[in-house]
Amino acid sequence: MEKSIKIPDFERQEKERKYGIHYKWVALSNTTLGALLASIDSSILIISLPAVFNGLGVNPLSAGNLILLLWLLLGYTIVSSVTVVTIGRLSDMFGRVRLYNIGFAIFSFASILLYASSYLVQGTAGIISLTILRLIQGLGSGFLFANSAAILTDAFPENERGKALGFNQIAAIGGNLAGLLIGGILAAIDWHLIFLISVPIGIAGAIWAYVALHELATIRKNQKLDILGNITFAVSLTTILLSLSYGILPYGNSSTGWTNPWVQAGFGLGIALLFLFAFIETKAKDPMFHLWLFRIRAFAAGNLSMLLAGLARGGLQFMLIIWLQGIWLPLHGVSFIDTPFQAAIDMIPLVAGFLISGPISGYLSDRYGARLFSTMGMLLNVIGFLILASMPADFNYTPFAITIFFLGVGQGMFSAPNTAAVMNSVPPEYRGVTSGMRATLLNVSFMFSLAIFFSLLIIGVSSSLPGALYDGLISQNVSSATALQISRLPPSSTLFAALLGYNPMKTLLPPDVLNSLPPKNANAILGTSFFPNMISSSFMSGMRIVMYSGALLALFAAIFSALRGRRYVHEMRNS
Fold this sequence. Notes:
Helices cover 78% and strands 0% of the residues. By secondary structure, it is mostly helical. It has three domains: 10-216 and 288-462 and 539-562, Up-down Bundle (Growth Hormone, Chain: A), CATH 1.20.1250.20; 226-287; 465-538, no CATH class. The radius of gyration is 24 Å and the shape is globular.
């Protein structure tokens, strides 16, 4: 049966009369801008990394620089993931608008410094400078992510929240997808623009938020910060995310880092601290997060399905980019250096599907509840993953575009209604920390998904790639000793090269070996078809494992979405 507790929020209505009936649209537009800006910057470097490293004169694939590559790419997300729940709790204590404004200021300040640093600091020092500033920018994004949904939930009545959060979710997740396209376009023009784009928008948004947003939440007095719980949670999540990051790098003779004792110890410590955090929260007077909220069926099922959906979705864009850049585009005559930009263009159907379905499903969920749309969205993703798994390496683009379009549609159908259902299910005074937890789950699921999918891809590739590399190089008159040495290199090197738009064979073969070959053989090895033809069979073995795993995760997300029950709205009467 549908369970609905609809008690008028008299205090919110009074503040609406005070600030005007149109204030909710001011809140929607500003928080959507904040979420859009923060999410675009989380992915804008994925495709534009080659231009950044080339502009600073650094080879990202050299042994010492691979760590810098990983930190520049993922550090932003790690910091945002670790801080959002704590920020959400602080927002409940001191005001969501106040901390949202602080986040916009931090984000804008870091954006200015990033743009300046891109000109002023070169070489490895330039990469380190950009990485540190990206960490600060990630902190600012944590303030924005943690509060945008809570501010909207405060500003909109229950029967309009799905629509409002639908637009906000388009910004938060659609911006992540759009960042790929924007990064590719700006990198093709001038790589410095990648850092400049956030500056004017960030400054304008920060001023607008400070002037226009008002606190609608009731701030409870005499609350104390759960310092021990916050520290335990932050250390736990940091060690887990760092272990995930280093787990996808090669270690010793292994193609991944999961056998690295430091990675294993990090996971063990992180999980142990997570259990300790749960124990601390049951004893704290003012806990960081109230675990009893998981007794609310709509809250628990919504968050679990969101985590599973994020695991299915998060690493998908990486896998599709590697597929496009490493195999499909070169087979169709696109030079490796041009593949990042073209891959961004070819991913537009995925973004379009999400942008179309997000607001529509959010609007409809206000009337009919979240369960139908969220569940159907994930089932649509199950079908999409299975179709991708059945495609050959050299696919026809039209069915590929249609498939990823409907994957985007399914993700939009799930995200907005599910977020509205989760935010509606908690008492108003816990919306800040709930919004922070929602953002944490989104970011953590992205990191886990990337690590899981990339590791599965490497496992699938490792079984047949060495033999294919050896035979292919031997056929082009490369010496047996050199071919054997190249075939034993970690597969992650070739996959990172493909992701970054480098010719993998040019990065694998030493210059003296290429120069010693007859021109015909050297040109063949460096051509656009040699590497894709050589790797396609082993690559698709790994890709099918990834797609079947994504389908399974999406299926479980659909099941838990269906188990949420019918609409549940928790509105508390303000005294």
